[in-house]
Amino acid sequence: MFESFFKLKQNGTSTRTEIVAGVTTFMTMAYILIVNPQILSQTGMDQGALFTVTAIAAVIGSVAMALLANYPFALAPGLGLNAYFVTVAAQSSWQLALTAVLIEGIIFIVLSVTNIREALFNSIPKSLKFGVSAGIGLFIVQIGFNNSSILTLVKHDVELNSTVITAGLLAIIGVIVIAILLSRKIKGAVLIGILITWVLAMLTEAIGLYVPDNVSFFSTIPSQIIAAPPSISSIAFKFDFANMWSIDFLIIIFAFLFVDLFDTLGTLIGVSSKAGYLDKNGKLPKAKQALLADAIATTAGACLGTSTTTTYIESAAGVADGGRTGLTSLTTAALFLIALPFFPIFSAIPSFATAPALIVVGFFMLETIVKIDFKQVAEYVPALLAVVAMPLTYSISEGIIFGVVSYTVINVCTGQAKKVHPILYVLSILFILKYIIL
Fold this sequence. Notes:
Layout: H1 2-6, H2 15-29, H3 32-40, H4 47-68, E1 75-77, H5 81-91, H6 94-114, H7 116-123, H8 126-148, H9 162-183, H10 189-206, H11 247-275, H12 287-304, E2 309-311, H13 315-320, H14 326-339, H15 343-348, H16 351-366, H17 377-393, H18 396-413, H19 422-437
Antiparallel strand pairs: 1-2
Helix pairs in contact: 2-14, 3-4, 4-12, 4-14, 5-6, 6-11, 6-12, 7-11, 8-16, 8-17, 8-18, 9-10, 9-16, 10-16, 17-18, 18-19
């Protein structure tokens, strides 16, 4: 059955190889089951429901990719996009943020079917793409630092207690542990790093290096290992269409579209290159099907109650293990489904233990900054403005606005107006009007 549907022999693989690759991919991205609920719960959404939704969204997205494109790419709610979701929710409500993700998904379905999505991707200058990616990475690093109280360690004017010191130090140790595991090419390095950080916290308490003030690390040990997954009724289909006709809302949708647009295509191209899928012109066969699967996953995820679901760069780990067909992503989907009853374990891990994962993943995204053309001022200044603005304003959309407007203005004023795509002119005018009107 697998052979006939996934064409295993034609792709030079086997059932065993595909299943092993699927397990590898799951191990490298399973941390999202811990991190996504913790990030989105900052909006007031139920963390238990978010765990269930995160797993189901990963299942739907990965299955869609397997069946529509027959590619070994797994999907789940994306880091960076969920952080932006939180900032939108803080300015309005998580219901409105979910509405924006839903509309983004529907728009992407239309754009994927009509091939416009790829055309839009090409309208964005490379430097700005790299700058936004790096900016999101820095933004995620900032969240990791905040969650673990690392910065408090060096603020001498703040009265430190043992909880803050221990949490911050353990988070730093966690980053080092993950880095060592990654350098030694250990599968599941990020997930293992989270668990080691959690265990170290309990050990420091057990041997007396940490004396708890109010909360004991041992209290985070779950009372049971398996339980029925929490209901998603509190967050599923909770949309707010009443406040969707403002300029601010349109900018929110654009920010989601912008980030997901090149994030997904960049991931697909990167993993496809490793798998040998790209043709001689560097194009990806069945790109339309892959993008459609991504768009369907985003729409379904919004209906269930989570931020944008996207293709994961961690899929490259499965490809490196020999995964070449949709059977790999189908295996990953099955493991996310199996993980559902283990909610007590995943939900018990404290936020400071997941901080190292956020910091390291943010570092991964920062690597795109070296791809910016630093020989051209009109290229690198807008890109770096986007990089710096995101963490300082605590908003991905503000970073994108800084980047787009500055890119347009600088190139027009330096006689390079033809270099700017018409779409960027329209966006720059809308962004400037936003600040004037509001």
